[in-house]
Amino acid sequence: MKIVVDAFGGDFAPLEIVSGAVKALQENEKLNVVLVGDKDKITEILQSLVFLSDRLEIVHAPDVVTMDDVPTVAIRTKKTSSIVVAYDYLKQNEDAVALVSAGSTGATLTGAVLKLGRIKNISRPALAPIMPTLNDKNVMLLDCGANADCKAENLLHFGIMGNEYMKAMGVKKPRIALLNIGTEEEKGSEMIKEAHQLLKNSRLNFVGNIEARDVLRGNVDVVVSDGFSGNVCLKTIEGTAEILFGELRDITHSSFKAKMGALLLKKKLYGLKKKYDYRKVGGAPLLGINKIVIKCHGNSKAESVACAINQAWKLANNKLVEKVAKAVEKDEE
Amino acid sequence: MKIVVDAFGGDFAPLEIVSGAVKALQENEKLNVVLVGDKDKITEILQSLVFLSDRLEIVHAPDVVTMDDVPTVAIRTKKTSSIVVAYDYLKQNEDAVALVSAGSTGATLTGAVLKLGRIKNISRPALAPIMPTLNDKNVMLLDCGANADCKAENLLHFGIMGNEYMKAMGVKKPRIALLNIGTEEEKGSEMIKEAHQLLKNSRLNFVGNIEARDVLRGNVDVVVSDGFSGNVCLKTIEGTAEILFGELRDITHSSFKAKMGALLLKKKLYGLKKKYDYRKVGGAPLLGINKIVIKCHGNSKAESVACAINQAWKLANNKLVEKVAKAVEKDEE
Prior knowledge:
The structure is a homodimer. Chain A is built from eleven helices and twelve strands. By secondary structure, the first copy, chain A, is α/β, with parallel strands linked by helices. In chain A, helix 3 (about 70-75) packs across helix 5, helix 4 packs parallel to helix 5 and helix 6 crosses helix 7 (about 190-200).
């Protein structure tokens, strides 16, 4: 069971990606990794890390998809780019079960659909980031931007996929909620009201609507949303936290007195930042695809890449793709 | 020119509402206020505040619309409630120009449309909260929940109304942006892409798409959004800030060392909380209605009620309603 890693996607590629893969291999003895990218550069980094393992394979890809590339064009034309070669490898090798990439979200999404294909009956794959919450549990928010226009049925599928993901990660009877502008059943747009009914009548442990203000409280495991609102929610969380932590940093540097105060609080403030650091939970899975795909944040460093590789391994090991396929099929009956 | 105040709407009504009205009257000599609610209770509070002014009028209303009432039903049946009597007063008295209420959002919205009516050519009034930002400027986000389903044309009207509001508050050439899941023109749902084109081809100073993460940066004056996403954005900001400030409070109480540190940072931390306190900017206007309507937060205290009354006065004084009507008419030509 091999995890394929796009070694040249991400702000800190290839060094941090390769280092992350090495870290994951050291942590997990059952893991096999395929690093895709410029072979010479990868070899050079591995030598500098003094790492050698027969569980690590390198597949050469001289080209790279950048942030300036149009994803749909790049996937079709940049045939020797690390992400395209990685997807081709996944397509051709049955024992390759998952992709991990910190590169362009658009290219990762497009490549996944074009090269690996969707799970039967699922018309819209969803990007599903996982966030740490107030009570130290994780919450998954999906979709977060893969689908700007959604139908109610897509949201039911998001719920089913989120449910299977959380079960694969060890959560028993995941609590599924619907992102809405009020907790009452009759709230929301027409599409959301329809999605509410579908979720309510499904086999899921549907706990009703959740307001955006409560997403980070950790009282539910999966928040289902259309891709537009989910993206707005995710980016608002990121933006608000960034601004407040930034203000806090400025305050603690603003005077001698403040610096002294900050010194006394340093450990606790650092703990707070660490608590809400979404990188520690790995990457955002792209659910609904025929193999496991994990999209890491562009600024991922070795630690979060290693997390994402282990996450991919765990999901593949727990047969997430097969379970999603079965759950959706059941639902279609 | 009278501002009508629902004295019995809000968590801290009537005391804080009446006190807020008194504060506003003391601050602004040109202001006239009509307090609507139980006359005896209002008189009692005024006596305890030792306040008497011929610029203050009381209109009796024995009943109250509560959070448990269904707004549409309450507006039609609770004919002697403070909010209904307030709207009736506005309808019948030409010199009554604005309503301020901290009561039920639903009742305030429903009453506004049913009793005062919409401005000609505007099919969807919008709830438009104003928030303090990183660079100390205010940003308006509209719609924030009055319309869960929107058409592109509604969003153009939101832009026009936000523009007139900001001009009435003294902002020259307000920068209008569209809330979207990417900054590129081709991003977003079909409706949002259509709205982008309408805004781009309008007379507005349209600066393009804005991502949710940048709303609080203060680089634009008005963020246009459908009511669903706007509500998600607003409540995510509130929820994230609440959680982080809560964590900060817990941290600063967690040990003797932390308490000492917090003591040294106290003034700055308080300043930070104050900086982002949206109550200081007054209430959220309901734009598109034939008179000025300001909805205060349910937990408003005297200071924010006074702010909202002054805000209403300023808007009425600058003829916001007439200007919106004219701007939309121009746009229809």
